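Human: Not sure, check this?
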Amino acid sequence: MNAATKTGTTQRVAWKVRPLLVSVHRWAGLALALVLFVAGITGAVIAWEEEIDSWLNPGFFLSSTPGTPLPAPELIRRIEAADPRVEVAYMVFNVKPGRAIQAEVAPRLDPVTGQPAEIGFNQIAVDPVNGTILDRRDTGATSLAPKTLIPFLNRLHYTMLIPSEGGIAWGIWLVGFLSLVWMVDCLIALYLAFPDRRSWRKSLAFRFKRGGYQLNFDLHRSGGVWLWALLLMLAITSVYMNLTTEVVRPVVSVFSKLSPLPADPHMAHQPATTPSRQLDPSQIFERAQREAAERHIDLPPGSYYRLSDIGVYGVGFFEAGNHYGVGLGNPSLFLDARTGAVITDTLPGRGSAGDTFIQAQYPLHSGRIIGTAGRVLVSLLGIFVAALSVTGVYIWLKKRRARHSRRKRAAPSSSSAAGMVAPGVFPL
């Protein structure tokens, strides 16, 4: 077979495959449109979640008490002593002067009923100097009130407010599955954007003077081409954010060894059956700092985790006010609650290629990998993703109306002709 014959065969196959991919892209786009619109708009906002939340709720984020902040173990002790129904599950305590501390709290089991206590909140604001609880809120509330707006937008972004049932996080799974569809559709869209070698320039151009449908089409196609790599990155990192253990880690582990997670079933630790069998936070911090020095972590402890269900403590390390981190994030150590032994760690930039890939997912998704400029870019991308959804639906509606109009004008008189469909036209 000569070169000309091979080229002709390839072109014929491409023209047969193309209509199928057009149909797949159309229906995938329609299935994704609402979710991507909502995720794009909410993502553009929550890229600045702490700044907006602080502006809306100064009483939850600011503290004016002068003095030296209490050590983290003492803060934890005072919080839990003030309300014995709760335990501190997560707390960022290395904050800048004038800032309050935010702590996630979980209900303890009621000794009478054996069920979690009813507390009505899951986050508190704490004065770092005296440990006084300044405010409380329920971040799971479905409300647009200033106090719960940003947590609400976060849940809307990741779950579309679809609740968990039967132990399954249906909203997280659905958004994760649709992110997989979006990732595949990004590849299809790039193929469709370049129909042949001669017309590739059209896929990069915008017909601003034409306006109307032509400009709308160019915004969808050419805009998607110019930003294609960034859109694919958002799609891939979206899969990670929602399907970390279900999809991303198993796939990555095929190609590279991964450091274990604290909850991996093969890890040799079990939850302590009684609190007396667990080390207290002061012991955990002492051991964490010693282990950090051995790993050449030259940052102060800044956050505290307590994973009671698996008997694990966690300590994050960062400078004051830098709990999100820049680049690949901040180092963390996870320790057995009974022995203080390090179970696993997260050391940005260290470990296998797979570890580095995993570490990069959230920083890429949030834009924090390159600091403020990255967050600006992610906000703009979120708006563009929402615009892609709108322009895609608009293109579908215009083509659908055009197809219906053609069918009406060419309505055949015989029943046999009525069953015929023009090549390349997909009936709806």
